[in-house]
Request: fold
Amino acid sequence: MGRLVRTEGLTDIQEEILKTVRQFVEKEIIPVATELEHKDEYPTDIVEGLKELGIFGIMIPEEYGGLGESLLTYALVVEEIARGWMSVSGVINTHFILAYLIRQHGTDEQKQKYLPKMATGEVRGAFSMSEPALGSDVAAIKTKATKTDDGYEITGQKMWLTNGGSSNLVAVLCKTDEGDDSVYKNMTTFLVEKEPGFGETAQGVTIPGKIEKMGYKGIDTTEMILEKHQISADQVLGGKPGQGFYQMMDGVEVGRVNVGARAVGIANRAFELGIAYAQQRETFGKPIAQHQAILFRLAEMATKVEASHAMVVRAARGKDSGERNDVEAGMAKMLAAEYCNEVVQDSFRIHGGYGYSKEYEIERLYREAAFMLIGEGTSDIQKMIIGRSLLKDYKL
Ligand SMILES: Cc1cc2nc3c(=O)[nH]c(=O)nc-3n(C[C@H](O)[C@H](O)[C@H](O)COP(=O)(O)OP(=O)(O)OC[C@H]3O[C@@H](n4cnc5c(N)ncnc54)[C@H](O)[C@@H]3O)c2cc1C
Reply:
């Protein structure tokens, strides 16, 4: 069957984009990834290279200077990038979600103002729902935007902003009082502009510093403190308050396809490392790949990579066709994340003691894989979404 994670029915343009990205990953990412990750160093040169390739504008329509590509193309690009270094896919992802939100829900003025600059990477996006006291339970947010004479005043604390330091535009979900009985209709997304960096990066907006993490290094993950931040009503995503929850859930759906794709990328790399090592390492007079226990492990790993890839592709194609895909995205994300952790664990075992050494790439993948279980909703939350939908579809 040849190499894993092939995709049927791609256009010539999609094939060309993937080939270019694959070459970039081989040449510019893989050789430096582990060293930069161990130093927790921001991949500035890689990010500049991705800007030149147009990856920051991959799904932004051509009329705004982007490549106008589909979610499928994006997901396949993410698989390639995460195979090289998962953190790099994180640099693009929140940017991509924000661009998607503006494309889908923004006013014409917001599209004109931000999308061309997002396509070049001049404006860099983050998105923020989570707070110190909540992540899964988004509707429990406390950050509040109060109406003023000429806009809103936002006060609250946000947590876990991927690209919180390097971005200059953040979609921030806030509580607003729309007088609706439903908590979901009393939330609004604001487009908060700030300078990149740390400290007070805009009036009433403080980014305290980087959160130290077990993996997913290189990329900045931060808190954001909003203290009477004054913002004009023009910065309400879509111009109309009360839509924020639904807009963010739409963004999270494409984000879930993205995390699924990242998990495929990590798992594919772990498989490649495992199958290479298994043919080189000898025990009891033969390469370990010839011990059936290792061979079976490799077979299971490859099957899990293929199954995850197929689910991610299906979810991306579903969303591209305009269908609601919360269940498909949830299934793809959950399966790919769980399988990714199993495949990485198997590759780690194949590496024996060397897998525990920082000299071997699998050590980094091991720490990266864990985040797949959490980001864009934990596996438990995916199960809730999938399970509730099943009960509706199969109602007696
Ligand atoms: C490195 C990193 C980057 C992140 N980047 C961003 C970002 O850019 N923007 C952003 O908004 N957020 C971001 N997050 C936050 C992330 O989305 C949340 O951490 C995640 O959704 C889980 O929320 P929580 O950490 O509050 O866990 P909790 O919601 O407190 O959950 C704790 C545990 O309880 C389980 N649980 C919760 N509710 C239920 C339930 N009803 N039934 C069964 N089990 C349940 C969960 O599965 C989990 O195992 C990031 C997180 C990390 C670690």
